[in-house]
Amino acid sequence: MITLTDTHAHLYASEFDSDRDEMFGRARQLGVKRFFLPNIDLNSVNGLLALAHQYPDTCFPMMGLHPCSITNLVEQQLHEIKTVLNKHKFYAIGEIGIDLYWDKTFFEQQKIAFKEQMLWALEYQLPVAIHCRNAMNEILEILEELKQTTAYKDCLFKGIFHCFSGNAEEANKLVQYGFYLGIGGVITFKNSGLDKAIQNISLNNLVLETDAPYLAPVPFRGKRNESAYLRYVAEKLAEIKNCSLMDVATITTQNSIRIFGV
To answer: From CA 128, how far away is CA 159, in angstroms rounded?
Structure first.
């Protein structure tokens, strides 16, 4: 039996309240046995922690402030999130990053939060889960800036560039920085171009994810996503890389263990 790892899934979300246990059962039947859960903001903390407590051997929580939740009270928000970070066991800082797709109102605050949480990763010696939407240049600029600081000087970044959807040049740049690329349902979308972007990226630099309940793969595109559907992502990646499903499962799960330490 293969073991697949969903490195990014919001399984505490209300979309799963009616069938969460059954959803986990469906995932296990298809070989998905490990789940890493990114936080959104203070409102998602209780659900996240409850799920991690219910499934301590399979659900591993992260803590961070999502860019779409950031307001002009960013300093207060960061203080609240860090207070939670200090009280519980977490496996990564996430989900953090920059999102300029919906609204650019708090772009400056997003930059503040991203830089601060990247520094938390060093402080707590944790990997990061980075969200990037319509902001690749902005994030790369900040990463380059961080590389010049005393804290990050001569260090590789550690973590996952969640839901990677960039081009080949960006993929290579991120891998050189030390990041793994999170591959999800987009890989199954016709004409997404993601297959070409990761053509020369080794499986040793990739992990699998769903971002459930969002971004369901074909043939479920447009419907609620769930961790069982990671199997479709893995099968598509095996096709692209011309290898077996077992190879994809084994290598990407080993990568997740390397990243998160569990």
So the answer is: 5
CA 6 centroid distance within chain: 9
- In the chain (262 residues long), the average pLDDT of successive 10-residue segments reads 97 98 98 98 98 97 98 98 98 98 95 97 97 97 93 90 96 97 97 96 98 98 98 98 98 98 98
Find the helix or strand (DSSP H, E) in which 8 lies: none
Distance CA 102, CA 134 (A): 9
Exposed, middle or buried: residue 239 (CB in 10 Å: 0-12, 13-18, 19+)? Answer: middle
pTM of the model as a whole = 0.97
Q: Which residues contact 215 (CB under 8 A, 6 or more apart)?
A: 163, 184, 185, 186, 225
* C-alpha neighbours within 13 Å on the C-beta side of residue 238: 16
* Residues forming beta bridges with residue 93, ordered by sequence position: 63, 128
The CATH code of the domain that includes 194 is: 3.20.20.140
Range of the domain at 107: 4-260
How many independent structural domains does the chain possess? 1
Burial bucket for residue 191 (CB in 10 Å: 0-12, 13-18, 19+): exposed
